[in-house]
Amino acid sequence: MSSMRFAVSMLSVLGIASIIGTVLKQNEPYSNYIIKFGQFWFGIFETLGLYDVYHSGWFLLILLFLITSCSLCIYRNSPLMIKEWRTFKEQATEKSLNAFSHQEIFTVKSTPENANLSDTKQQLLMFLHAKGFKYKFKTQTDGSELIAAKAGTNQRLGYIFTHSAMVIIFFGGLLDGNLPFKVQEMLGQKRIETRDIAESQVPAISRLSTSNPSFRGNMTLPEGTSDNVAFVRVRDGYLVQELPFRVALKDFRIEHYATGQPKSFESDIVITDPDLKTPITKTISVNHPLTYKGVAIYQSDFQDGGTKLNFKVWDLFARNNLTQKLDGAIFQKATLGGDTKGAGANVVKVEFNDFRQFNIINLSPDGKGKPHNVGPNITYKLRDAQGQAREYVTYMQPMQIDGKYYFISGMRETVQEDFHYLRLPVDDDLSINGFMDLRAILLNDAKFEEIAHRLVQNVAEKNKAADGKVVASNQPFEKSVVQLLRNFAKGGYNEVARMIEKNVPEKEREMAARAYIKMINLAAFEAYNMSLAANKKPLLTNNAETQTMIQDSLNGFSDMFFYGTPYFLQLENFEHKEASGLQLTKSPGEKWVYLGSALLVLGIFSMLYIRERRIWLLLKPSSHQVHFGMSSNRKNLDFEQEFSLYREQIRNLVVSD
Amino acid sequence: MNKIIDYQQKKLLQRLDWQDWLYAILLVAGAVFAYVKYANYMDIYEVVFLFGAAAVFGYLGWQWKALGKLVLGVAVVSLFSISLYHGDQARATQTFLLKFLIASQSAIMWMNVLFVLAMVTYWFAMFKRSVFAGSVATALTWSAALMGFVGLMVRWYESYLIAPEVGHIPISNLYEVFILFCLITALLYLHYEKNFNTKQLGGFVLLVINAAVGFILWYTFDRQANNIQPLVPALQSYWMKIHVPANFIGYGSFSLAAAVSAAYLLANKGVLASRLPKLEVLDDLIYKAIAVGFAFFTIATILGAIWAAEAWGGYWSWDPKETWALIVWLNYAAWLHLRMVKGLRGPVLAWWALVGLIVTTFAFLGVNMFLSGLHSYGTL
Ligand code: HEM
């Protein structure tokens, strides 16, 4: 197990596991996986622990193997490394020097002063010193003297540092992992909770006490509330972690840049604890956590804290424009329709899910413009008596698209889909009333004859101005307009298309469609003016701008039939309340991981940048020779160059005068 | 006794001349000036980084004179450019010099152009065996680095012109770090070029750099990524200032190793063998580049962990970016083991280093494109 091959295969498995972990999105709600893979594969993947690879048993096992392998490796290699670190290898002999690949023998000129090579020795020692070598002497049996020198042997310590660092880091990681919980879970002492129940109802078996040494949990605190537990997510459930203190949120703030992007998230928190004389008050923000009793408290995210909402509710298919009021709050429910007690077959439950005060959207048609803030929106579900729900997102303020303003509301039937949007144009007062009034008239068949009549008259007037002919009335034409409007009121353009398909031969359909659309437009124009007149407002003049407004209104009218509900919730007022998402962690392994990291860096630098080199100089007075040998545990270019350089420098020193 | 002098290496301080000291004095003066002027806006870490940067660039400039000149050049040109703004961002497109030369965007465009020219010249020099063309190519690469750094410096200034609260060091998104990547890779290459006299490799290294240039151009013209965006809260940390550069020294070195490996594999097959450096030299270069990369990548990952502990509440969250950093790290650890422990050399390691670039690129770019996670600020 201490072999490198084993370590490398383990590392490869670790690598592959990590790749799976990043390709397959981790820790999603299990229902998402079921939808993605189907029941069969979902089950298999679940057994393999693929939804939380990094906490699965087999992953921890690999890490354990690696620690063991690394430790054994250190155990096996360290004695050798330490020996190499300390030794000068002064046992080398003439014979072993002869076997070196890097060696040279120099003959020293024989002079009386240097008869026993003492001058040469002196110079060589100065040379070694200048090059940063340490040395030791050893006299050989034949009277010659060996200088054994070494430099850079600290490189050997690098090995020990690097590999102990790995063990220390893994150890720290394991301390912070969920191994203790895994063991307790296997022994049946702990169990995750999967039900959506109140915290106080969670049984002891799913609770972790304050003595739990290591955890990473979340706490969502609405403004003005406090709590003393955190939730630890595990697979598709959770555990309740009790805390040795209580955290209260006084205020949560999001600051924004001028462009609307968030600039900072800050929570003013207060910590109370019987051990504290006065509570701790502190503002935490991203990158600036607070640590108390070994528990670090981080600003992690935010959500709605139960914003109060006031709506005006329109019934899109009513022939009038009466509205009702609806009040609610995020995370609460309300009802619409039904009988006076709010029961019956046509009752609709409203579930308010989310409110966002700022929405940064890029509305430019090619997506190249700058994103900007379009104001608050609200997300809610409408659930009918059968329990079927549709999700809606409605923006409070009109949005500018292609230079025109619309009220926008999106609907989708499942979370996987994108929203389909209803776009209702604003009237001259930037309000939704213009559209709603038009809609009411276009649904009200009592008004159709009047519309048709006005339309015919208008056309007649125009003709009169053009060629002087006067047509008082045109009964058949008016009838067909009324018929057309009846169909339009039943289902918008779709219904008209169906009518054309039924009554018009295929060749003429396109022409008929064009004529009908034109007629509906003209009729809607009249209808709009009728409602303006009724409200004593200035009438529309016929120009390109009003024509697109009418066209947009008619499109909106047609899309209404696909909106999935008659209720259009117009947000009138809100009282914003936020909740701060805190993350609480206790990680006793952190110190170890940092210690290991420091060792790792030290070790890697010593291994890579300290080069171990050894020089032997055998001084042989008998033959007046110096035998120079050099070696390194890493054969590379640097060493070759260094050897050549030293050889020539030593030659200069000892051979010439 | 004068023989001794022959082999004694001079210590760094003994080797310095008056120009080196002048350089150091200028750097320190610059740092002190910045400190006096802006101390109120800096926290203790930023003060340490400021003087730390002066020390690091001082040391690097002493060791490598050309780099010192680049540092001074960048400082002079950037300050000149900034002086032309008169505190008004609109002048970037109105003043002639700014618009066509040294506004941040223009300087970055010049960097792109010069890198392309440098690459073409390097290849030309190799085929013609022209020493002169080789020197021109080197000069072009230096100029590209100059313009790139000026672009980043001025961009830093421009971000403060948008609004003081928006101002930040320009290494915060994919667009900016790609520029950093080009610059660091180029400098690493120039360093090896000086030490090993290997101008023939320039064409290979600049291929990688120009791939990044291509990305920058696409990102600029198709996605308008060059617009300066304010920082999301998670990135507002002094850690960014060291974590990101350390990472990019790693990425740059690994890319350099891959480029040299490509040259190695060609030369090993006899292609261009007479023009390229000897195989041993290439092999050594690959090793040195990976060693530098590995060391810095380790530091960067550790810094990232410390930062994560502060921003996200845990030093390791198995977020895709972290996980892929680990994969990259393991990959090169294996490479180093094979070379050091098993003594492996040659084509296998060269192939490995080349494939390593794919892994590295995925960690750098692919993760942002295909996977989402806590590091999601850099999505395409
Ligand atoms: C968790 C797994 C491991 C990691 C992350 C790791 C990391 C490293 C690193 C970073 C180096 C430095 C390479 C260099 O000099 O540039 C190294 C060298 C080395 N590793 Fe490992 N290692 C691991 C497991 C092992 C194991 C199990 C062995 C057992 C045979 C081993 C034996 C060695 C040896 C002998 C060296 C070279 C020492 C020298 O010659 O100075 N490693 N390792």
SSE diagram, text form:
The complex is a heterodimer of chains A (657) and B (380).
Chain A: H1 4-23, H2 30-47, H3 57-86, H4 94-98, E1 103-107, H5 118-130, E2 134-139, E3 145-151, H6 155-176, H7 179-186, E4 207-208, E5 215-222, E6 226-234, E7 237-256, E8 262-272, E9 280-285, E10 290-292, E11 295-304, E12 308-315, E13 323-329, E14 333-336, E15 348-356, E16 360-361, E17 372-373, E18 377-383, E19 389-395, E20 399-401, E21 404-412, E22 420-425, H8 433-443, H9 448-467, H10 475-503, H11 509-534, H12 544-560, E23 567-575, E24 578-586, H13 590-609, E25 613-620, E26 625-632, H14 637-654
Parallel strand pairs in A: 4-7
Antiparallel strand pairs in A: 1-26, 2-3, 3-25, 5-24, 6-7, 7-8, 8-9, 10-11, 11-24, 12-13, 12-23, 14-15, 15-18, 16-17, 18-19, 19-21, 20-21, 21-22, 25-26
Chain B: H1 2-7, H2 12-15, H3 18-38, H4 44-63, H5 65-85, H6 96-102, H7 104-128, H8 131-162, H9 174-196, H10 202-223, H11 240-268, H12 279-311, H13 320-340, H14 347-370
Helix pairs in contact in B: 3-4, 4-5, 5-8, 6-7, 7-8, 7-10, 8-9, 9-10, 9-11, 10-11, 11-12, 11-14, 12-13, 13-14
Protoporphyrin IX containing FE (HEM) sits between chains A (2, 4, 7, 66, 69-70, 73, 77, 159, 162-163, 166, 604, 607-608) and B (333, 336-337, 340-341).
- Mean pLDDT of chain B comes to 90
Measured by DSSP, the beta-strand proportion of chain B falls in under 5%
- Which two protein chains have the largest interface (Cβ within 8 Å of the partner's Cβ), and how many residues from each? A-B, 62 and 56 residues
Q: Compute the CA-based radius of gyration of chain B.
A: 21 Å
Work out the count of structural domains of chain A.
4
The computed structural class of chain A is: alpha+beta
Overall pLDDT confidence of chain A: 88
Alpha-beta content class of chain B: mainly alpha
Low-confidence stretches of chain B at least 5 residues in length (pLDDT < 50)?
Answer: 376-380
> What is the distance, rounded to the nearest whole angstrom, between the alpha carbons of the first and last residues of chain A?
59 Å
Oligomer: heterodimer
Shape of chain A: elongated
- Assign a percent range to the helix content of chain B: over 70%
Largest sheet of chain A: 7 strands, antiparallel
Head-to-tail CA distance between termini of chain B? 67 Å
What coarse outline of chain B follows from CA principal-axis ratios? globular
* Beta fraction of chain A: 25-35%
Helix tally of chain B? Answer: 14
Rounded Rg of chain A:
42 Å
The overall strand count of chain A is 26
